[in-house]
Amino acid sequence: MVVPPAGCQALFGAAWGPMQQFAAMLASRGDLLGVIGPGEVDRLWERHLVNSAAVVGFLPATGSVIDLGSGAGFPGVVVAAMRPDLEVELVEPMERRVSWLESVVGELGLENTVVTRARAEELSGMREADAVAVRALAPMRGLAPLVGGLLATGGTMAALKGRRVAAEVAVAQKALVKAGLRRVSVNEVQMLSGGESTWVVTAVKR
């Protein structure tokens, strides 16, 4: 079992148990099932679980959250475990990843979570979520219309991005405006003392 970095138990709080179980599932089956790469097991905690937790502080106090392109469950499974007060929908188009997500939701007992097999384009205009959380799905220019089509008025986007995020947001300005996304903010977040920074781009649907 991969040892989590110092501070993880305090970070995840009441979700510590489910996060340990999720990490164990990923380490034992994730590579075999093709939901994570073979080189990812040794850095599961900081690169994936801790990184996913960075969006939690930017989500609304109540309501519904869509994890768009959930994949292995980042950040949606982490959000669902840390925020049982939110209704979380994991949206993923690939059948094998959907099967994986359904097994994770069942084994972790995430009663606030549903899994939907669909592409974002198929759900556009059919959802009015209070927030959309997304990680490693597409550049911001392509991501903006996907997110805009799923958010309710006043809803929040929380997108996990890398260190080149400022340039990515700059070239996406027209796409963000066209998608109705305003009040765009780039937030640098460090979840663990001495750990790597990540960036969360937030915006509000007009």
Annotation field: number of helices: 9
Strand content: 25-35%
- The count of strands amounts to 7
Rounded to the nearest angstrom, the radius of gyration is 16 Å
Largest sheet: 7 strands, mixed
Return the structural class. Answer: alpha/beta
* Topology order in helix (H) and strand (E) letters: HHHEHEHEHEHEHHEE
Apparent shape? globular
Widest sheet, order of strands: 3-2-1-4-5-7-6
Question: What is the average per-residue confidence, as pLDDT, rounded to a whole number?
Answer: 94
Uncertain runs with pLDDT below 50, 5 residues or more? Answer: none
The percent range for helix content is: 25-40%
The separation of the N and C termini measures: 45 Å
* Assembly state: single chain
List the helices and strands and how they pair.
Elements: H1 8-12, H2 16-33, H3 44-53, E1 63-68, H4 76-82, E2 86-92, H5 95-108, E3 113-117, H6 120-123, E4 129-135, H7 140-148, E5 151-161, H8 165-170, H9 173-178, E6 181-190, E7 197-205
Parallel strand pairs: 1-2, 1-4, 2-3, 4-5
Antiparallel strand pairs: 5-7, 6-7
Account of the 3D structure:
It contains nine helices and seven strands. Helix 2 packs antiparallel against helix 5.
